[in-house]
């Protein structure tokens, strides 16, 4: 086995182990940092994809998911399993010079639909009740926004806003991280 292949495998195994540690820390902190850890993992996997290739990144994705299943809770495992491909897909679009803005947004919308609506009872979520609670909080501050359309459509609005903002956050953090890592590499 050549040196580069060994480096890919060792780095991938290290990342999978680090994701497992983040999962354990997440459980011990009462799942307070779910989304932050998942976005950090996505940026790290995007950098791994940038440094090596997509095929190895998918292997790290499945290995990490298995480790997360063993060490973490179900929501963290499923949400990270569906979110981590955003980093791989983003770097793939950059490498192939594809404008991936809508590809990432549609993937994020499908992912959030699957996790928040199809798997909500399995994960112990109640998206509709949460959306109505958010609606009542907003109406408490801004009474002129009270309407049946907003009351019934709040979960759709939240779903779209969540999907678009998630893609934006991952793109910005990935760009900053990759730019910073490449700048450090050029200075050495």
Give a written overview of the molecule.
With 188 residues, the chain is an all-alpha fold. It has one domain. Helices cover 86% and strands 0% of the residues. It has helices spanning 3-28, 34-51, 54-71, 74-95, 101-118, 120-123, 127-141, 148-187. Helix 1 runs antiparallel to helix 2 (34-51), helix 2 packs antiparallel against helix 3 and helix 7 (127-141) packs across helix 8. The protein is globular, with a radius of gyration of 19 Å. The two termini are 28 Å apart. The mean pLDDT is 88. The chain crosses the membrane at residues 31-49, 78-94, 106-125, 156-179. It comes from Faecalibacillus intestinalis. Keywords: Membrane, Transmembrane, Transmembrane helix. This is DUF2232 domain-containing protein.
Number of strand elements: 0
Radius of gyration, CA atoms, in whole angstroms: 19 Å
Number of helical segments with 4 or more residues: 8
Give unreliable regions as ranges.
none
N-end to C-end Cα span: 28 Å
Domain unit count = 1
Q: Provide the structure class.
A: mainly alpha
Please state the average pLDDT score. Answer: 88
| Biggest β-sheet description | none
Percent in strands: under 5%
- Please state the overall shape, judged from the principal axes of the Cα atoms: globular
Helical residue percent band: over 70%
The succession of helices and strands, N to C, reads HHHHHHHH
């Amino acid at each position: 086995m050549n040196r580069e292949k060994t480096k890919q495998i060792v780095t991938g195994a290290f990342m999978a182990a680090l994701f497992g540690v983040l999962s354990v820390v997440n459980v011990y902190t009462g799942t307070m940092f779910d989304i932050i850890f998942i976005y950090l993992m996505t940026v790290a996997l995007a950098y791994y994809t940038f440094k090596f290739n997509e095929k190895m990144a998918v292997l790290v994705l499945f290995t990490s998911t298995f480790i997360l299943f063993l060490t973490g809770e179900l929501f963290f495992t499923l949400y990270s399993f569906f979110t981590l491909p955003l980093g791989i897909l983003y770097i793939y679009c950059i490498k192939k010079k594809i404008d991936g803005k809508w590809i990432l947004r549609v993937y994020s919308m499908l992912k959030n639909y699957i996790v928040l609506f199809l798997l909500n009872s399995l994960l112990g979520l109640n998206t509709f009740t949460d959306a109505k609670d958010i609606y009542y909080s907003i109406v408490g501050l801004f009474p002129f926004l009270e309407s049946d359309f907003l009351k019934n459509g709040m979960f759709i609005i939240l779903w779209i806003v969540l999907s678009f903002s998630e893609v934006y956050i991952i793109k910005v953090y990935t760009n900053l991280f990759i730019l910073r890592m490449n700048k450090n590499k050029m200075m050495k």
